[in-house]
Fold each of these.
Amino acid sequence: MPGSRTPHGHQPYLVERDGEVWSVATNGRVLVFLAGKAADFEPAPPVVAAQLLHFIDPVGRSTSFYLHELKEYLGAPVWPVQCPQCHGQGTGAAGACSQCKGDGGFPPEPRPGWVFSVLLDRNLLARALEPLQAEIVWVHGQDCRKPFWVVADAWRVVQVPLSAPNGHDPNSWEADSYPRLGG
């Protein structure tokens, strides 16, 4: 949101691996890696670069999808709505905005769905994939608690799975009530 604070590590960075430069950005739940220098991002501090690069290589079972079919399954991306009271600034006369609690806006409701055995917020993934192009992508998933990758030649997206309420096993709650893509 405009005017909101960027938590450490959530700003876009440049990282280098095996002589290749990658532009990377995250919101804490989704990482997007773009091959090359996408903008005038700063090089990541060594500790942050190591943390980010930990997620660059996909792990787990994989299969391919046409990107347009994956995007169709995910649905149209829905973006946060700016707070009408503070106009996205997160502050008011008495400090933090009373309506948005200082966030500057309101996130969309999660849109759960399964890809393989990973429960994801389909909207978060749709938002990350919206500007990206490829014909075929490789989708990598491990289990319900591990990151999930969508990989193309020039980019990769990594998403953290949704957590089950109260720490229960995601495979045991409402498993059949959410859409499913893949085995």
Note: The first strand starts at residue 13 and ends at 17.
Amino acid sequence: MGSRQVQVAVVIGLLAVAFGWRHDRIEDRVNVITDAVPWQCENTVVEQVTSGELVLQGIREVPTMQCRFRFLVVNDSGYDITMERFAFPAGGPHGGAGFQATQLNTIYDYAEGPLPDERDAIWIVNDRVDAGSTQPYEFTVEFRPGGCDAPGVLRIDQWPLVRVRSWGMPIDLEPETIPVAFIGTEHTTC
């Protein structure tokens, strides 16, 4: 290899290390957390339920239920990020559960979703969260007519599923939210 090729290889290697370092650092410093009072529900009962070793807020799935769930994106990194995608597991148009996520409130008016033909409720967004800032978001969750949850508790541990972009790289975040539980009723039996 010639001197010029070695120089190019060294520069490429340094750039790869720098981008990898920034990527890891951003991923470790951006968190998705639960708001202090995550569920605000109307026309249903929210009660404590036990699922495994956890005591959770359980939402009874009834035809009149309408809930809002607040979560926060905390950007403790030194870099601005762009929110690209939010997903609420099993809450999409083709999910079979007794609930469906019908709306996502975002920073700006742009939120495409929930996308059709998906099991999860997925929204495509383009929200900027500045370095060192926190941004609240909110899902609206309603009863799904014809939804099928056996009596008992359906627990969702990781939600929302979030993809951000920083320095041109997509990053899937591991949410640190409290698991949520939906309680099947006579309205959601299969």
Note: The helical segments are 3-29.
Amino acid sequence: MFESPKFREFIHHYSLIKNNTISMQPSIFKLNGNGIEISGSEEFVTAQLEAFKELIQTSYQAILENKSLISQKSESAEIIRKETVPVLEIQPYTDFEDVTNKSLDYSNVLVILQDKIQIIADLPGDSKAKQMINCILLFLWAKLQKGEEILTFTEVREFCQYYGVLDSANFAMYMDKNKKYFMLSGDVRNKTIRLIHPGIKEAERLITELNKS
């Protein structure tokens, strides 16, 4: 299409204009996907429209068809992407209280009162660190039964100290090592702790074992 005699005639005619052999007035001829721009003297504009009417129409139609084809390909690719990409279903948040075993018998392990929690079983563990973790598991589980999910480090430390299992120097380290049971939040001065699902299950396993003895 662009090697036609009409096109070569247009190139020759445009070179004459550029070299000021036809007119000294600045002239512009632009053809792109956004439109056709011809500017200059009235004589120049009229001449271009008449001489290259067929070439302009054919070229611009080809541009429009190419843009339409690109748009169709983009839409097709989007449809394929939507069909092939799996849709992830986000499960709703489950409150920690809802996953505790409300029917679990803890009568030989814990006393849970409105204003007090007491461990009445011997804390298992062959080291002070293990006893401390078990003490925390029981304490947090008992608090959950009262609807209290989040406790401060201070509360937990004081409870462990009361039962003689607090390893004060290594407390933070043991908390970090047992993150599979706990969710830790806050800064150094305002650390909080809450029992998460694996911790709830471990506490209930511990209660079941201790309640039998």
Note: The longest helix spans residues 53-84.
Amino acid sequence: MNNKLKKGAPDVKTPGKDWPENNEQANFEDIADPVVKALKVAIKKGNAVYKDGINWTGFKQGKLTRASVFPPTVALHAKNLTYSKKEQGRDVITEIVSIAVQLGIEQGRRMVVEDLERYKFLFKSEPGKEIIESLIKT
């Protein structure tokens, strides 16, 4: 069986790097560098990016975000970039910025979990306990 990917095809076996374990924050460079790399590729390739796609080397989105969006490797696939542009009016830069925002949301969630001990006194009610538990589980 041929395991080589076709040009522009996403590597769905690896939808992105896994985040650090135990809700630890990622290093800024590990989040930002792949975003910058993808932006540079998009700018350099111009319209050819819709034919070739972009190889994503960064993190996948957080668990909650992945429930409603494609992983970066799929979103940056040539066919999906073309669809996003033609059908939704979103160009490749918009797609990359969207991924960056999604990664920022996950990093922010991790920051909240890390600081929960400091703010636990705010969540003494039952709804507050549920919020804390849901943040820690994801």
Note: Confidence is low (pLDDT under 50) at residues 1-5.
